[in-house]
Design a protein that fits this description.
By secondary structure, this protein is an alpha+beta fold. It folds into 2 domains: 3-134, Roll (ph1033 like fold), CATH 3.10.590; 171-302, no CATH class. The chain is built from 11 helices and 12 strands. It has helices spanning 10-13, 16-23, 105-111, 123-134, 141-152, 159-169, 173-183, 214-218, 228-235, 263-266, 287-302; strands spanning 3-9, 26-29, 38-45, 54-68, 81-89, 95-96, 117-119, 200-204, 223-227, 239-241, 250-255, 276-278. Strands 1, 2, 3, 4, 5, 6 and 7 form a 7-stranded mixed β-sheet that branches. The radius of gyration is 23 Å and the shape is elongated.
Amino acid sequence: MKTYFAYQAEKEHGPFREHLDTYGDEFFTSNSTHAGATLFVISGHYEPRAKHATFKLEGKFRIRQVRENDTGRAGFEDKKNYLTLERLAYPASPIVLEDSVNFSREEFRKNYVRRGLVEAPHANLIDYFDQLLSISPDLGVLAVIDDLAEIDSDDDLSETEKQEMRRARVGQGQFRKNTIALWGNEEKCAVTGLEIRELLNASHIIPWRDCISKSDRLGGYNGIILSVHLDRLFDRFLIGFEKSPRNPDIRPIVFAPKLKDQISSLAAIGITRALQLNLQNVKFADQPRLNTNLDRHLERVKKNTS
């Protein structure tokens, strides 16, 4: 199935999201396309004489229907086609695109901005956009973009290795598989047992930037599957899990000092002192490294006072 890039000029048509909020999921274009195709929408304010232009990735859509533009929508009278869209990946706010090996403002402007909607044959750019859209808001988009750019610039990695490292950075690919395999719980939250994939994140216990080797960044012993609300707290060192003197397969939850006045409020979303991390199915050979990483993470939790 074909993939297209579409550009909406904010100067002429206003912010893309305001348009969707007002009229629904639609897009107007003079170019030809077809139902079933994938569409990445990028918006921006580009001035021909400006040295720089800021482009924002709005989201990824499937084109549900293409028909002749007979809507009479103000500002789009010159557009031949009216597209009805289905949201596939739609972040809470647009992602500002930064320069990296996979994205160049100048190349994007030259190849896509002037043409409005065009088929996108560049697999690297498509993959880059998919990676950005797969990033959990909990991870911090700007930090992840910086790390992806660092991977791209590493001449010691082959393209295949770069691809795997990019996926690992956003909790996907081999890293997610390694984490699931090591914990032995199938794809479930290691605390609550939740099995809804869309609500599960594969997170690094020792943060990506603190890892000193490729093994640490891909190894399941440095990963944990958590439901999104627990993952957000864990990723920010607001909760951790400490060893139990009675049962080595259980690690009770620990709250950071910063949360001392908020613990009762967290009960409303099921986060209480009764929660425990279940290590019962973790492979025996990997338990020492996993426990070491969890202990290192817990040290930072206990120091998180502000």
